[in-house]
Amino acid sequence: MWIGHVAPGLVAKVFAPGVPLWLLALAGFLPDAAFFILNFFGVERFRMHEELARRGGCFPYATDYPYSHSLVGIAVTGVASTAAYILLSDRRVKVKEVAAVFGVALSHFFLELPSHRSDIEQSAHGAGMLDHSVADFIIESALLLSALWFYAMYAPLATKVGYRGAGQRSRLWLVISFLLFQQAQFCFGRAPTDVTRWVHAPLYLSQILVNSMLVGRSSLGAQAFCVVDWRVRIAGIHMTWPHICDTSIWESGS
User: Fold this and answer.
1) pTM, 2 dp
2) Residue among 73, 77, 95 at smallest CA distance from 86
3) How far, in Å, CA of 117 to CA of 122, rounded?
4) Which residues contact 133 (CB under 8 A, 6 or more apart)?
């Protein structure tokens, strides 16, 4: 699964509007990010699998990730991301915000279950949706768009300034198009080389970071701009927002 991991963060933003959307998006991808980083050190690995490539399907790799994609490993990454958020926040983090970050990270395990093939080396085998490119593309795209609709409909208005401003809706559609293009490449594209450790892993890791940043640009998460005394300079707005660190406005949407 690829862009489907953005969906839990969009849904969680509705219930924890004070958490930056970029962080929630990153939390959904976090086990994958950990996997690609561990590849650099040879702790986990993946390689091109000729048989998978011949028969088609998504992500034609034989993958060995006993740590980053085990339930315990994903829980550890969730705890680590939650702890980092608490420690770096300059305000008291609410219980529901802790639950949101941890829950989004943990969702990675359950979203992967229908995707993985039974022949992939991992601690939990899946139902093999990766072998069905068209079905995977439709399901992941629908998951992303449904979560985006839920976020657009029910998140507090103040958390959607990034795309509801004048002239900003086109940016949102560009982000959606970029994510759908990635999913198409994930489902139907072919790997450019066989060098997974130093080519594929950095490419996928960079996509995760860029995706999190772009998704976050559709929102003005309160905590993202409380670290320093900023003026709001996003989406062409140049004005002082004296209450930007008052999370009550994010809860009410006022």
Assistant:
1) 0.82
2) 95
3) 10
4) 56, 57, 58, 187, 188
- Exposure string for 184-206, b = 16+ CB within 10 A, e = fewer: eebbeeeeeeeebeeebbeebbe
Question: Between the CA of residue 108 and those of 26, 129, 151, what are the distances in Å?
Answer: 11, 15, 19
Helix ranges (H only) for 116-216 are: 133-154, 161-164, 169-188, 201-216
What residue type is assigned to position 51 of the chain? E
Q: How many CB atoms lie within 10 A of CB 63?
A: 20
Can you give the pLDDT of all 254 residues of the chain as single tens digits?
A: 999 999 999 999 999 999 999 999 999 999 999 999 999 999 999 988 878 777 778 888 888 888 999 999 999 999 999 999 999 998 899 999 999 999 999 999 999 888 877 644 444 456 788 889 999 999 999 999 999 999 989 988 777 666 665 566 677 888 999 999 999 999 998 776 788 999 999 999 999 999 999 998 876 433 333 333 333 343 444 433 333 333 444 444 43
Residue with tokens 């509801």: 164
Residue appearing with tokens 């006022």: 254
Distance from C-alpha of 129 to C-alpha of 99, rounded to nearest angstrom: 29
**Cα–Cα distance, 24 to 12 (Å, whole number):** 7
The set of residues, in sequence order, having a beta carbon less than 8 Å from that of 10 and lying 6+ positions away, is 21, 24, 25, 144, 147, 148, 150, 151, 215
Whole-number CA gyration radius for the chain: 19
